[in-house]
Design a protein that fits this description.
Structural class: alpha+beta
Largest sheet: 5 strands, antiparallel
Bound molecules: delta-meso nitroheme
Radius of gyration: 22 Å
Number of helices: 17
């Protein structure tokens, strides 16, 4: 329990809106003082658990009115920690080098400059120094704004906000769905002793997510215990283009109408229907009751079919969490705690009709995930699994060396559109490649941060 008060809210604060404020530290001494005053505003995992219980109680007794909920977290890039005088290594090379140095390895699109350096097509802010990130989440835009004012009052001119991303849960029945329309936040790893496990939920040692905990194999400075690495990715989504591709390429199966064929293709690209129901359980038709049922919607492991009739090997959720396609010990170290939120406006009727995102419009996913090793978590999943045309292994197929192509949602290869192929989408023609016309998820950059234990905010980092 003491550790849960020390750990920031990585388990995921209940939220309708979230601001991400990327900042540089302007006045180190002043910032260290301000950090001590900020500490009471910072949300711990114990606070997250209390807030979740409050919401449950509120629902159970049908209490009227809205519950005001707010949470604040802070994390630092390696540059930020250096500015604060931290000299010892945290034992993570990707964190130390920063995400810009990882961009090419991640498959981001870019160019090579005259000195031979890779320059990704990112927002300029992510290509210049960012020292830290504030994450302010709450039940409404107003609550978040109010809290951001409080935080900015404390930090004052000791920081300079270089970029603010306004995350917003989508409206109405799209609540909790990302911009392509699929329910998000469905499958997260569980820590048995902390939250128990739902049927089918994968257990991880706390040390896979949190530094210095059981299962973290790296030696860390004592003050970093209960910290976690936060990978942030600014991912634009080309939603009208994605929908146009589905409309233009319905899977042609007996008994399916054209729109049903399009819907099935979307589900097979992701591995779940829009409701969250896994295609491994319900391969031909969505089942919204299943999608809404936490007791059933994760209870599958891809072992029911030896081929791709239920779920393509390349489906996003199979690429990023292959379950029993690999031995449990080979999957567990790569589990991440995802806590992203959608950003940007809803698709307009004009955009939908044109099948094209309007110029200047940015919508997508403010992707956030936590792990104790970036090269086992985010970076590994992107590079070694999603972008790897031979992953996962498929010994059960008639031709086990057959390529299965990219993760059609996030797999990327530096912008080579002709080469972005995915295989296994058509259950009746499982070896037929499908060339994906555009990357529907476009990386606009990001950074790797260290989300320190709360004790460090008044201790190590403030000293
Ligand atoms: Fe993914 N999507 O809408 O298609 N993701 N994801 N993701 N993702 C998941 O289980 C999506 C991204 C993982 O345990 C679902 O919550 C989109 C990155 C992992 O079964 C949906 C983007 C990375 C899982 C999406 C995006 C991952 C997962 C199913 C970008 C890591 C859990 C709902 C815009 C490198 C797999 C759910 C499991 C699930 C979508 C990004 C990883 C619907 C649109 C960058 C590990």
């Amino acid at each position: 329990p003491e550790d849960l008060k020390d750990l920031q809210g990585e388990l995921g604060f209940p939220k309708r809106a979230e601001d991400f404020v990327f900042f540089t530290i302007q006045d180190v001494a002043g910032f260290k003082q301000a950090l001590k005053q900020l500490q009471p505003l910072i949300t711990s995992t114990a606070d997250v658990q209390a807030a979740r219980k409050q919401i449950d109680d509120h629902k159970k007794c049908n209490a009227p009115g809205l519950l005001k909920i707010v949470g604040t977290n802070i994390a630092f890039s390696a540059k930020g920690l250096t500015k604060l005088g931290v000299t010892e290594s945290l034992g993570d090379a990707d964190f130390a080098a920063g995400q810009l140095a990882d961009a090419q390895n991640l498959g981001d699109t870019g160019t090579t400059d005259s000195s031979g350096n890779f320059v990704p097509d990112w927002l300029p802010q992510f290509k210049s120094a960012i020292d830290g990130i504030l994450l302010i989440a709450g039940d409404s835009i107003l609550t978040v704004e109010e809290q951001r004012n409080k935080v900015e009052l404390v930090l004052g001119k000791t920081i300079n906000a270089v970029l603010t991303v306004n995350g917003l849960v989508r409206p109405g029945k799209e609540k909790g769905h990302e911009h392509f329309g699929f329910l998000d936040g469905v499958s997260l790893p569980g820590i048995q002793t902390l939250t128990g496990l739902l049927p089918g939920q994968q257990a991880v040692d706390p040390g896979v997510l949190v530094l210095g905990q059981n299962g973290d194999t790296v030696t860390r400075p004592a003050w970093a215990k209960n910290g976690s690495f936060l990978a942030y990715r600014q991912l634009n989504q080309l939603v009208p283009e994605f929908n146009k591709f589905l409309n233009d390429n319905p899977l042609d199966l007996p008994g399916l109408t054209r729109p049903e064929g399009s819907e099935l293709l979307g589900a097979r690209l992701v591995g779940r229907w829009k409701s969250g129901a896994p295609i491994d359980i319900t391969p031909l038709k969505d089942d919204p009751a299943l999608g809404a049922d936490p007791q059933r919607r994760n209870n599958f492991d891809f072992s029911d079919a030896t081929d791709q009739s239920r779920c393509p090997f390349s489906a996003h959720i199979r690429k990023t969490n292959p379950r029993t396609d690999l031995p449990q010990a080979a999957v567990a170290p790569h589990q991440i705690m995802r806590q992203g939120i959608a950003f940007g406006p809803e698709v307009t009727l004009l955009e939908a009709a044109a099948g094209k995102t309007a110029p200047g419009v940015n919508r997508g996913l403010a992707f956030v995930c936590y792990q104790s090793a970036i090269n086992q978590g985010f970076s590994f999943l992107q590079h070694t699994w999603a972008n790897n045309i031979n992953f996962p292994p498929k010994p059960t197929l008639a031709n086990p060396t057959e390529e299965i192509g990219f993760d059609p949602i996030i797999g990327q290869n530096g912008g080579d559109k002709a080469g972005r192929v995915t295989i296994g989408q058509n259950p009746n023609a499982q070896s037929t490649p499908m060339t994906l016309p555009v990357e529907w998820v476009v990386s606009k950059g990001g950074e790797y941060f260290f989300s320190p234990p709360i004790s460090a905010l008044t201790g190590k980092l403030a000293a």
